[in-house]
Amino acid sequence: MSNLGEVVLLECWASPFCMRVKIALAEKGVEYEARTEDLYGGKSDLLLTSNPIYKKVPVLLHNGKPLCESTVIVAYIDETWSSPPLLPASAYGRAQAKFWADFIDKKVFDAGYKIWICKGEVPETAKKDFIEILKQLEGALGEKDFFGGDSFGFLDIILIPLTSWFYSIEKFGGFEVKEECPKFSAWMNRCMQRENVVNALPDPKKVYEFVVRFRKMQGIE
Amino acid sequence: MEEVKLHGFWPSPFSHRVIWALKLKGVEYEYIEEDFPNKSELLLKYNPVHKKIPVLVHGGKPIAESLVILEYIEETWPHNPLLPTDAYHKAIARFWIQFGQGKDYFRSFFQESGEEQEKAAKEILEMLKILEEQGLGDKKFFGGDAINLVDIAHGWLPLWFETIQEAVGVKLMEPTTFPRLHAWMLNFVQVDVIKQNLPDRQKLFAHMKNLRDKFVAPTIV
Lengths: 221, 221
What we know:
The complex is a heterodimer. Chain A is of the alpha+beta class. Chain A is 55% helix and 8% strand. Chain A has helices at 16-27, 45-50, 70-80, 91-116, 124-141, 154-159, 166-173, 177-180, 182-191, 195-200, 204-217; strands spanning 7-11, 33-36, 59-62, 65-68. Chain B has 11 helices and 4 strands. Chain B is 54% helix and 8% strand. Chain B has a 4-stranded mixed sheet with strand order 2-1-3-4, covered by helices on one side. In chain B, helix 1 links the parallel strand 1 and strand 2 (30-33). By secondary structure, chain B is of the alpha+beta class. Chain B: Its EC number is 2.5.1.18. Chain B: Residues 2-81 form the GST N-terminal domain. Chain B: This is glutathione transferase. Chain B: It is an enzyme of class 2 (transferase).
């Protein structure tokens, strides 16, 4: 598959949203230059000019033209480099995938955040809410191996990066995803068999160290 | 052609988005008015996750979330395109479709008072400024010479946001401070499909005022 020009990704290692783009590019065999933003330093000039509205990563620059927002970027990648397809073939299948991507974006990170940002004891409601969200996702998965069906696809790409933060959520929340949501955990394991996923996701313990440091900086510890 | 049905609610800007898209595509559909707060069994069956309208049902298969429905309509009935055809401009359109959507500050502005409302008002003004300057720019419509999904996504600003401002008693969008957005709003509601598919303004205001009064009513201890 041709690279179709120059591809640059502005990213940072801890961001699940950047991981989504990395996985999508890898699935398509696209070669790209990753430029890492310093989490604790200032934002690069290129980031500020490419994404003046949100000033956030990920930003994909294709032949110098910037694109922002991870789900928009992943859809762009799917449309620009056609093989293998990430979204389902039917319009209905694509609508279901986008519905669940919207659900994931509205719910998962925030529910996790409410747990790992807690000062003192984590309220039971926060844990319950998080687990309930995973259970709803288990419902969407059903008996399939992946959200996309037999093959790893768009929705798997949207969700799996968020799981690199689950170890931190579990530590602060005092529960384990594999006990509360075994089907979800099994899906996670299937995804982690894939080289492109393993290469894009950081060690969850490294994320935990980052969360601990972040909490200290916010004066929570 | 398979049957198309739309479950909606007359004051909802989200159901109107779907109505506008279907009308622009010339798609025949049956409209089912949901009698809130009594949600029909069908609605709960079709949208068990959010239990909300709009839900589009095509050949018996339900699709929920208005922005997801819009893309489904665009893909299923591709004549009279409502999104750019090239991947890059489509991605830019999707960025602007999502911009400012589902933000807490709109809910706060409508439901809160005092400091919380002022903070929300400030955030709304910032968002509108960016939408006007960078989203719309010098174009007549977000879609250029004709409306497209971006216009439809922000189509709640005329009428709905206007009546909300009236109900709350705070005017945020002055023609002098947002001249281009204001011109866009006037042009948007003149488009035939839009003009012919708007709720009655007085009825909508009464509905919004009623809701607003409930939100700010002092709680009886």
